[in-house]
Amino acid sequence: MSDANSRSIVSNQQGLHEKLDEIVNKHLTAEFKKPIAAHTQMAFDQVNEKVQAFAGPIILDSCCGVGESTANLAKRHPDALVIGIDKSSHRLDKHDIEYKQTDSGQYILVQADLNDFWRLAVAANWQPTHHYLLYPNPWPKAKHIQRRWHGAAIFPFIVKLGGLLEVRSNWDIYVKEFAQALQLTGQYCEVELFSSDTAITPFERKYWASSQQSHRLVIALL
């Protein structure tokens, strides 16, 4: 499939999920008891050593895929340590081949389950200045609402991490649902169209080449 022929999102949802508020409110009041996976604990411990030793800003690039966005964010924030996290070793392994960028900025790529990594970061009192969620898997089928980050049990920990959160998707409903979930925590933001002269992720480049629009929210989490 060429970059200029990227498929649009197909969903049986025409608007916000009818059970979104119920699901989010349940997660905001429930305790997340799932045990931390050993491999993520080990990966976190290694990264945490570098975080604790670093004096500058910490930036998270969650669901970083091949890490192109992580490298680009490091260039944009040369005083920061940018941490790209993805669960797929297959995607991360492509980074050295295709996307290695070391001419400016500092970044780390780590393979980890974000359901565990985010909880560990909160427990370790990380205070990222920015948190990017760029084109996460939209899980567009209505029955998969709880696989979307805002509909998942981990959502309260995204809020607890704080920082300037930026979410981008080529599916407007995903970002609108995320904004609604944040509103249930007492935090309000607008969803807007986003465009730029330069795409910073492979998905962003593909979507724009096929004339799909990006939707985003940006909010300073309290």
TrEMBL record:
InterPro entries: SAM-dependent_MTases_sf, tRNA_(Gua-N-7)_MeTrfase_Trmb. Keywords: Methyltransferase, S-adenosyl-L-methionine, Transferase, tRNA processing. GO terms for biological process: methylation. Its EC number is 2.1.1.33. Gene3D superfamilies: Vaccinia Virus protein VP39 (3.40.50.150). It catalyses: guanosine(46) in tRNA + S-adenosyl-L-methionine = N(7)-methylguanosine(46) in tRNA + S-adenosyl-L-homocysteine. The keyword Cytoplasm does not apply. It comes from the Bacteria. One of its GO terms (molecular function) is methyltransferase activity. The keyword Nucleotide-binding does not apply. Transmembrane segments: none annotated. Pfam families: Methyltransf_4. PROSITE patterns: SAM_MT_TRMB. It is an enzyme of class 2 (transferase). PANTHER family: 3-DEOXY-D-MANNO-OCTULOSONIC-ACID TRANSFERASE/TRNA GUANINE-N 7 - -METHYLTRANSFERASE (PTHR23417), PENTACOTRIPEPTIDE-REPEAT REGION OF PRORP DOMAIN-CONTAINING PROTEIN (PTHR23417:SF14). Catalyzes the formation of N(7)-methylguanine at position 46 (m7G46) in tRNA. This is tRNA (guanine(46)-N(7))-methyltransferase. It comes from Pseudoalteromonas neustonica.
